[in-house]
Design brief:
The protein has 515 residues and is α/β, with parallel strands linked by helices. The longest helix is centred in the N-terminal third of the chain and has 33 residues, at 17-49. Helix content is 42%, strand content 11%.
């Protein structure tokens, strides 16, 4: 028999219970760690393989004007003086293909366009409608086709776009800057193929006036939108002689008139009709509130599509020529769409070790789906970004308004409230709205950034002595108020106007009584 002898003095040997227990613990911990790694790997694979939840577009979000009119008829009746009235009847470009020359001429005139039919050899085989100011065939079609387009990523010239359509491509509306030294501005060009027996025989070039002046983000004066289609969510749009949306205003301002200028981007200028924008609704509410002063109250929609905060101080200086008493600002989303996605992919957003760890975790599909909000940079880092891209410009706008003698009010920026989103609409809001604009953000993450901006804006207003209007705090909803992540439907637009109305009406009354 062989007997194992345990050496007490050395403390070694297989019979030590403490060592055996320690070994078991280490073994179990290693197994647990391996199991957790495999489980995490498996769950991550599941998250990557799992298809995005299916969703339906909510019934409150129409994509066709006839449906929109039915849905929001009470608001049309309240704010549009001549309601009911028919939708504009403007023929579609698709009607050109099956029409004869006389019918094509009628279509061009009703659309207010100059339409050319061009064949493969770049020969004009048909012209319909009146040539627009600054456009002609005096120097042949080649000189026109050589003009570079503004959408450089789509085509270098109109000739390139024409060739793409002949090859079967479908192009969106492109912009042709043919009036660079003229106040008439650029023109838009819609390209539509003439297909016969499955082959593209020609292309219609439909030229129409652009809304914009050349080289600047400003509307042309006295524009009336004519190329309406039932699938475009805009049935009427016009500008006055000053290039702002809505009815004419008098400059110099008549004695006793109280004028309010609303500035911002699309979330200010937006509306199915001029009368359904928030500035127009605000004017209606103020006149209803003070009927004895109704003819002295005027609200001007000075919003410009795509305007960002770096461009707003210059706009405020221009708006000062209208002699407004009050200025109301509502904007934010354009700063984010221009800068946020790029910043989140830069080292500037992730400076500390903890933040760099978060950045690595953002590559997980599982964590991106269920913990996206917690993997943002710190509030300190987000605040630095917001000050650099938005709030510094807001301060400049406040200073400009003060220097121009305007009392300024700045609104918090509203958005779909996560707690208000129903289970049925959750997938639609997350996938079709938020992730479309900000691929790296969940609704909760975007809301956190938006609410941080609002809090910082409120502090800035208190510091600078500007008015703060809590639109976001008072207008909370989901698809019942919003068409997308930031643009209100008419019900939301009314709620936006009501929030502004509640916070400026007392000051408006003071001005009316002083005047």
């Amino acid at each position: 028999m062989i007997r194992l002898v345990y050496n007490v003095s050395s403390g070694s040997g297989f019979a030590n219970p403490g060592m055996r227990n320690l070994g078991r613990v280490a073994f179990y911990l290693a197994c647990l760690a391996l199991w957790l790694i495999l489980a995490a790997f498996g769950v991550e694979l599941w998250a990557r393989a799992r298809p995005a939840p299916a969703f339906d577009t909510p019934a409150s979000i129409p994509f066709e004007m006839t449906a929109a009119r039915r849905l929001f008829e009470p608001l049309y009746a309240r704010y549009c003086p001549d309601w009911p009235f028919p939708l504009p009847e403007v023929p579609e470009l698709t009607a050109l293909a099956g029409a004869d020359a006389q019918e094509r001429e009628r279509i061009a005139q009703e659309r207010g366009e100059w339409i050319l039919l061009v064949d493969h050899d770049e020969t004009v085989v048909g012209t319909y409608g009146a040539a627009l100011h600054g456009l002609s065939l005096d120097n042949g079609l080649s000189s026109l086709l050589a003009v570079p387009l503004t959408e450089k990523s789509r085509a270098l010239s109109l000739r390139n776009a024409l060739q793409q359509v002949f090859s079967g491509a479908t192009l969106p509306l492109v912009t042709l800057p043919v009036h660079e030294n003229d106040t008439a501005g650029a023109v838009k060009v819609a390209l539509h193929p003439l297909v016969e027996h499955g082959e593209t025989r020609g292309v219609f070039l439909a030229f129409s006036d652009s809304l914009y002046l050349p080289g600047v983000k400003r509307f042309k004066p006295n524009v009336v939108l004519k190329t309406f289609t039932t699938t475009v969510m805009m049935e009427q749009f016009s500008t006055n002689s000053h290039g702002f949306r809505g009815p004419e205003i008098t400059v110099p301002k008549p004695p006793g008139r109280i004028r309010i200028a609303c500035i911002g981007g699309s979330t200010t200028v937006w509306g199915f009709r001029d009368a359904l924008t928030y500035p127009a609704m605000l004017q209606w509410m103020l006149r209803e509130c003070y009927p004895g002063y109704a003819d002295r109250i005027e609200v001007v929609n000075c919003g410009i599509y795509g305007l960002n905060s770096t461009e707003e101080p210059a706009l405020i200086e221009e708006v000062a020529a209208l002699e407004p008493d009050l200025l109301v600002h509502y904007n934010f989303i354009n700063d984010l769409t221009a800068h946020l996605n790029g910043w989140l992919h830069s080292d500037a957003a992730w400076r500390s070790s903890l933040e760099r760890g978060k950045r690595l975790l953002r590559h997980s599909r599982l964590l991106d789906r269920y913990a996206n909000e917690y993997l943002l940079p710190s509030d300190e880092r987000l605040a630095e970004f917001l000050h650099r891209r938005s709030l510094g410009n807001m301060e400049a706008s406040m200073n400009t308004a003060t220097a121009c003698g305007m009392e300024a009010f700045f609104c918090s920026f509203a958005g779909i409230a996560p707690e208000a989103v129903s289970e049925h609409n959750r997938a639609y809001v997350e996938q079709a709205l938020t992730r479309t604009i900000f691929p790296d953000l969940s609704l909760e993450a975007y809301t956190r950034i938006r609410e941080l901006y609002n809090a910082l804006l409120q502090d800035l207003c208190a510091t600078k002595g500007a008015g703060y209007i809590p639109v976001a705090e008072e207008v909370r909803g989901e698809c019942d108020l919003f068409l997308d992540e930031c643009h209100f439907n008419p019900c939301g637009t009314e709620a936006q106007a009501q929030a502004v109305f509640r916070h400026i009406k007392d000051q408006v009354l003071v001005l009316l009584q002083q005047g």
